[in-house]
Specification:
The chain has helices at about 25-35, 55, 120-135, 140-150, 175-185, 235-240, 285, 310-320, 345-355, 400-420, 440-445, 515-534; strands at about 1-5, 10-20, 40-45, 60-65, 70, 75, 95, 160-170, 190, 195-200, 210-215, 220-230, 265-275, 290, 300-310, 325-330, 345, 365-370, 380-385, 390-395, 425-430, 450, 465, 500. The chain is α+β, with helices and mostly antiparallel strands. Strands 7, 8, 13, 14, 15, 16, 18, 21 and 23 form a 9-stranded antiparallel sheet that branches. Strands 1, 2, 3, 9, 10, 11, 12 and 24 form an 8-stranded mixed sheet that branches. It has a 3-stranded mixed sheet with strand order 4-20-19, covered by helices on one side. Bound molecules: flavin-adenine dinucleotide (FAD).
């Protein structure tokens, strides 16, 4: 059922077997998995069913480290996540793929790499996650998808570089998609406009109640046998740091790990490519749609497309970080205002690359996503200012290093070289080489505004790096409580009845987009809670 905290009398105490905090991808998946299990569940969600400016303002804060930006457009903290039913899935682009086996291994030379669980441990949960993110299945094999799409993956591959497939789900807004199931449920109650402000505790070893408040000033609390934080990679840390009943440093923070290792995906508009073979060979990069054959979402259509990445062997041998590259296909000349100075079309790109494009469709723009090495000093902290609920606002000190930047470039070069070696065509790397105002058009592949006229003018030490809007690793999963915050079951090392869901528990970011794994981990956590509580 869906209820509204604004109708509760102040001072109300509610109770359930499980209290989930946050109704985004992680919280809704948990609620759906627990539905009908015999456990009563209360989900506390800060927002309503649509965006409300006063609630969204609770996500505002200060960014005191690296600037968060999409290319050269700075973004505010409150623009990086959403506070209403469905959470940030109300904005997500729907790119899904699992992490690779290498992401779970310790890579010598990369700080705090590796997970305490293996890739195989997550395989059954990625399979089940496909039902919730609304994609065909957990088979990401190239042959499978070449067959399903009737399209070829790019013929680029060696020991260092390989094609892979994305399944694209759209529009999969968890709040909209699962709202009627949540409304109809008798054992799951989603309470809207319930802003959690404190995890109450006597001794720091267990949560006694979750304290929540509406923006109208109604205070109430919820007791439960098990509590789950599912408020996203930034707010999970913020709530723990703000819960100071037993310790000024926060709840479960005796080893000072909460909020540390904040990681983002580094997004780079990387340059252009001209394919040797003309448009037909590029069709797999644009992808196509397929129909889900069975299950909860049978008959729904979703997309799939191929892209390029570094192989696990290469990442292992070089102890380096992941880089993936999408080759965005489109007609560069279509819709291009011919007289506008600075616009680049087929002929300009051909001249730039010294390689004549056969047709406008054989020119692609290159967009990369890259992993960063973990840095304990990159962290979510609390500022002095408070929000309308009285909670201290977030102060985010995001850091990445010159080495990260060098690894991104190294990865891009490795991919570009592989394209040349394979006779695919030519790639010209111009990292950050497009203006932010071109993004929309870039995605449609219509026209591109070059940052500067020639690649030599790009400053390789300072090229713009954008964010993926993926907030990871702030409550890392570890065996050792001195290096992270939750154990392999996602239970807080130091708080017996508190679990964490979302990409804050990622031990290492990997380069794959996170939500498919967030959902897989939520399915796994639901199983675990059932085994502990039933
Ligand atoms: C523009 C954009 C594009 C993206 N594209 C992709 C993509 O293609 N692929 C991908 O994998 N990921 C993508 N993402 C990231 C994806 O949206 C997130 O990984 C995902 O939504 C995180 O799920 P979550 O449940 O952990 O957090 P969220 O979805 O953010 O949900 C958290 C919920 O907790 C609630 N909450 C917060 N604080 C409190 C509180 N104090 N009390 C009560 N409730 C609270 C919020 O209101 C929210 O509903 C994208 C994000 C953006 C912004």
């Amino acid at each position: 059922m869906l209820t509204d905290a604004r109708s509760l009398p102040s001072g109300t105490r509610r109770s359930a077997d499980v209290c989930v905090i946050g109704a985004g991808a992680a919280g809704i998946t948990l609620a759906m998995e627990l539905m009908g299990s015999g456990l009563s569940v209360i989900v506390l969600e800060s927002g309503g069913t649509d965006v409300e400016p006063d609630t969204q303002d609770l996500a505002a804060g200060d960014s005191v480290g690296r600037t968060l930006e999409t290319l050269d457009n700075p973004v505010r903290l409150d623009q990086t996540r959403l506070r209403y039913l469905g959470g940030t899935t109300n904005h997500w682009a729907g790119f899904c793929r699992p992490l690779s086996p290498i992401d779970f291994e310790v890579r010598e030379g990369l700080r705090r790499s590796g997970w305490p669980i293996s890739h195989d441990d997550l395989l059954p949960y990625w399979d089940r996650a496909t039902e919730w993110v609304r994609i065909t299945d957990g088979d990401f094999g190239l042959d499978t998808w070449e067959q399903r799409l009737g399209l070829a993956a790019p013929a680029i591959g060696n020991a260092r570089v390989e094609p892979f497939v994305f399944q694209l789900t759209y529009p999969t807004l968890f709040g909209l998609l699962y709202r009627s199931d949540l409304e109809a449920s008798v054992d799951v109650e989603v309470m809207l406009h319930a802003n959690v402000v404190n995890l109450a505790t006597d001794d720091g070893r267990a949560v006694t109640a979750v304290q929540a408040r509406t923006l109208e000033g109604i205070s109430f609390d919820v007791t439960a046998t098990a509590f789950v934080l599912a408020t996203g990679g930034i707010e999970n840390a913020r709530i723990l740091l703000s819960s100071t009943d037993a310790d000024d440093s926060g709840l479960g923070n005796a080893t000072d790990q909460v909020g540390r290792h904040f990681a983002e995906h580094l997004q780079v508009y990387a340059g252009f490519g001209v394919a040797e073979s003309g448009a037909e060979a590029l069709a797999g990069l644009a992808g196509d749609e397929v129909t889900i054959p069975s299950g909860r979402h049978a008959g729904n259509r979703h997309g799939a497309k191929f892209a390029l990445g570094l192989t696990d062997d290469h990442l292992r041998d070089e102890a380096t970080t992941g880089v993936e590259m999408q080759l965005l296909v489109g007609n560069l000349d279509a819709g291009r205002p011919a007289e506008e100075a600075g616009r680049a079309g087929t002929s300009e790109i051909s001249a730039l690359l010294g390689h004549r494009a056969e047709s406008p469709e054989s020119v692609v723009s290159l967009q990369a996503l890259a992993e960063q090495e973990l840095d304990p000093e990159s962290r979510v902290g609390l500022g002095r200012a408070t929000d309308a609920t009285g909670m201290r606002r977030v102060e985010l000190d995001w850091r990445y290093s010159a080495d990260d930047r060098a690894r991104v470039l190294g990865g891009l070069r490795t991919i570009a070289e592989a394209a040349g070696e394979a006779g695919w065509g030519r790639m010209q790397l111009i990292p950050g080489g497009v203006h932010a105002d071109a993004i929309d058009n870039l995605v449609q592949g219509e026209y591109i505004t070059l940052y500067s006229a020639t690649p030599s003018e790009i400053d390789l030490d300072n090229f713009p790096i954008g964010v993926g809007f993926h907030h990871m690793c702030t409550t890392r999963m570890t065996d050792d409580r001195n290096e992270g915050v939750v154990d392999p079951d996602c239970r807080m090392h130091d708080v017996d009845n508190l679990w964490v869901a979302g990409s804050s528990v990622f031990s290492t970011p990997g380069v794959a987009t996170p939500t498919y794994t967030i959902v897989a981990l939520a399915v796994r956590l639901a199983d675990h809670l059932k085994s502990v509580l039933l």
